[in-house]
Amino acid sequence: MADQNPNTFPATLQTNTVEEGFDLAIMLSRLGVKKTQPNMKILRKLRPKYANDADSLTAASQVIALNFQTIAAANNYWRG
Amino acid sequence: MADQNPNTFPATLQTNTVEEGFDLAIMLSRLGVKKTQPNMKILRKLRPKYANDADSLTAASQVIALNFQTIAAANNYWRG
Amino acid sequence: MADQNPNTFPATLQTNTVEEGFDLAIMLSRLGVKKTQPNMKILRKLRPKYANDADSLTAASQVIALNFQTIAAANNYWRG
Amino acid sequence: MADQNPNTFPATLQTNTVEEGFDLAIMLSRLGVKKTQPNMKILRKLRPKYANDADSLTAASQVIALNFQTIAAANNYWRG
Amino acid sequence: MADQNPNTFPATLQTNTVEEGFDLAIMLSRLGVKKTQPNMKILRKLRPKYANDADSLTAASQVIALNFQTIAAANNYWRG
Amino acid sequence: MADQNPNTFPATLQTNTVEEGFDLAIMLSRLGVKKTQPNMKILRKLRPKYANDADSLTAASQVIALNFQTIAAANNYWRG
């Protein structure tokens, strides 16, 4: 899912599993970046620095946590 | 939606699709900036630096995630 | 609303429109600053630097997003 | 309320007005600092620098916004 | 509670008072640090710098605010 | 749980105890990092710096707090 087309927006926040929900949270976090800087060449150029910086990675994990809150609520926490 | 008139505030937080909800979250995030610094000339001058900085882009994605939480709740997560 | 008297606190979080709710979120965000630093002369002196820094503006937008979450919930998301 | 004794913890999160709720949010935000650094002499020494830094003030406003979310929910948003 | 054994995890998030709930929020915030860096010698060495930095203290207060949101909800805001 | 295989995603957010819920929050926070930077060699290289920096540890604790909010809600706060 990480490399999926950023232009394909999910039609729903519902997922079958917790893991798919987490992957969707990652996708939304990246979309937030891509919609702000749509130039993929620039994004690829920025990646090495930020993927090798612990604080940048923690910040990325924080955005994922926020989006996962939304998706978990949307799925009623997969309580089943 | 990204380039829409910042003075046109949405009358509702309800959207037809998840994607429109995400676009609205982006718009609110930008409105938060524009209401703090209404001078568009200055905002355009700031853009190159921040759109080329990975940490700035992650921070932008974080604000979008917070506004998306609000909009997703407003739409009852588009549970349909 | 942006320039209203910081000493006039709203009696309610309910607003008629989404836009008024967003303006109230901005007001609460500024109040958080003013209650920490009540000296308006100092606040005015700080403004030029922070209103010309993209990361400061994103941080301001983040606080607005948090307060907008509160106000949107208080208004039951203006579901009407 | 800003200068109240930090050792007097409120017995309840319920307040009569929105403004009192906001003041309580400020008090909890300061308590979070004081419980981490209880030495008031040090805290007073730190104040000048942080009260004159726009980004520090925005960060303080962010913590207040988080605590205000809690207190507003505790008061059912003073819907009355 | 601040100095309690970090290995004694609470069996419940329910507390008798608001103040105990706030203390629990502080404990969870510290646990988040200790689980990431379990070496107490290193943590003690880091303390002087961070306990004398206003921005570090605000960041600590922010984590406490987030955990207090969780604990307040768990206690139904001690509405009594 | 800290060293568990990052590829084993939990099938559920439900846990038996508060402590297991907190451990799951830590795991999700690390997953957010690992999904962004899957190269474990790089992650191990980054650890010494960030595990010895008070602000990095506070930021890690913040992400854990956000994920713990999700997990605590998923478990109805273990109200029992």
Put the structure in a nutshell.
The structure is a homohexamer of 80-residue chains. Chain A is mainly alpha-helical and 80 residues long.
Written account of the structure:
- 6 copies of one chain form a homohexamer.
- The first copy, chain A, is mainly α.
- Chain A has one domain.
- Chain A is built from 3 helices and no strands.
- The model of chain A has no long low-confidence stretch (mean pLDDT 91).
- Chains in contact: A-B, A-F, B-C, C-D, D-E, E-F.
What's the layout of helices and strands?
The structure is a homohexamer of 80-residue chains.
Chain A: H1 18-36, H2 40-50, H3 54-74
Keywords:
3 helices, about 80 residues, homohexamer, mainly alpha
Largest interface: A-B, 32 and 29 residues
Seen as an oligomer or otherwise, the chain set is homohexamer
Give the overall form of chain A.
globular
Low-confidence stretches of chain A: none
